[in-house]
Specification:
By secondary structure, the protein is α/β, with parallel strands linked by helices. The chain contains 14 helices and eleven strands. The chain has an eight-stranded parallel sheet with strand order 1-9-8-6-5-4-3-2. Helix 8 links the parallel strand 5 and strand 6. Bound molecules: flavin mononucleotide.
């Protein structure tokens, strides 16, 4: 099916596999590209060396277009007082595992897009680059556009969509409240501004003069068709790929996705400092799901890291981020190509 998105991205299908930091790398992206959709590499949690290796794997593995995704949050200033207050709230949790209150930071960093990343990217010239939490500084964005990359970014409100378009995005991803993982919100941090995919999508389509991609809660072919009927040029799907063998989703995360617990997701800031949707677990029930004392993104990850490691060593996901959207019905432990086929069934290539 030819939509304006296929024209922009040069894919067979108007379908993007959502970049999902922490649960996938180039293997999933390559499988999706081979199936005719746009595969995505999440770069937010990769070191420069890892990013280089993954970009090389993409370049070697496909001649089709692919997407590389970055976070572009303002780096936070460490705040020792806030960190101490938050750790005080977690004291009983730490004690239950016999952890010292100041136990070390083993959380992987979440890096914003910077000059080093732009320089590395310029060596590989990926055809599509997407951002979460707004857009990078104008000079950095200009470097990405210099090789003709299509630039996409997530909007969670109509205002954000207008801002992204005015500041250089070629394609807007309308991320509804159902979506798994972090909210891409960047003009406001008030969760009350967030609305569902099929309320947000038609309003964004009316507000901007570029292709709009629907994201959040889309898990089957009927959902894809419904989004296209509402004016989407394409869809971006994340949760439905989490059980694919090409994803690196942990065994505990996979088990949670296939359990009755997956019916109950919530927005939580406990794991990183920014609201993200995941399956409700013990940590979220005890301290959140939203808690105003949490350190700024991504510093909050440090305090939970020892708890997570201790619980996971006991085979428990009580302190693990179990990112998932509200609609897990599309999750199948099947190769990504089959998930792509299920999503595009009924669309004519
Ligand atoms: C496990 C997980 C990790 C995610 N990580 C990222 C990320 O690194 N960058 C990004 O732009 N979006 C990320 N997202 C959000 C997706 O881009 C997308 O908005 C969401 O998956 C769509 O909703 P769905 O999960 O209901 O399909 C993530 C989503 C999930 C489920």
């Amino acid at each position: 099916m030819k939509t304006s998105l296929n024209t922009w991205l040069a894919t067979d299908w108007p379908l993007i596999q959502a970049p999902m930091a922490g649960v996938q790398g180039s293997a999933l992206a390559l499988a999706v590209c081979a199936a005719g959709a746009l595969g995505s590499l999440p770069a937010a949690m990769l070191s420069p060396e890892q990013l280089r290796a993954e970009l090389a794997a993409l370049r070697a593995g496909t001649t089709r277009p692919y997407n590389v995704n970055f976070f572009c949050h303002p780096p936070p200033l460490p705040d020792a007082g806030r960190d101490a207050a938050w750790r005080a709230q977690l004291a009983a949790d730490y004690a239950a595992f016999g952890l010292a209150p100041e136990a070390g930071d083993r959380a992987p960093a979440r890096r914003p897009f910077d000059a080093a990343a732009a320089a590395l990217l310029a060596e590989f010239r990926p055809p599509v680059v997407s951002f979460h939490f707004g857009l990078p500084q104008a000079e950095l964005l200009a470097q990405v556009k210099a090789w003709g990359a299509c630039v996409m970014s997530s909007a969670t409100t109509v205002d954000e969509a207008r801002w992204l378009r005015a500041n250089g995005a070629d394609v807007i991803i309308a991320q509804g409240l159902e979506a798994g993982g972090h909210r891409g919100m960047f003009l406001s941090d008030d969760p009350r501004t967030q609305i569902g995919t099929f309320a947000l999508l038609p309003q964004v389509v009316r507000a901007v003069d570029c292709p709009v991609v629907a994201s959040g809660g889309i898990a089957d072919a009927a959902g894809v068709r419904a989004a296209l009927a509402l004016g989407a040029a394409g869809v971006q799907v994340g949760t439905a790929f989490l059980l694919c063998p090409e994803a690196t989703t942990s065994a505990l995360h996979r088990a949670a996705l296939q359990s009755a617990d997956a019916a109950h997701t919530a927005l939580t800031n406990l794991f990183t400092g920014r609201p993200a949707r995941g399956i409700v677990n013990r940590f979220m029930r005890r301290h959140g799901p939203l808690n105003p004392a949490v350190p700024a993104f991504p510093l909050a990850a440090a305090a939970v890291a020892p708890l997570r490691a201790a619980a996971e060593a006991q085979g428990r996901s009580d302190y693990s981020p179990l990112w998932a959207g509200q609609n897990v019905s599309g999750c199948r432990a099947l190769p990504a190509a089959q998930v792509v086929q299920a999503l595009v069934a009924g669309l004519v290539a």
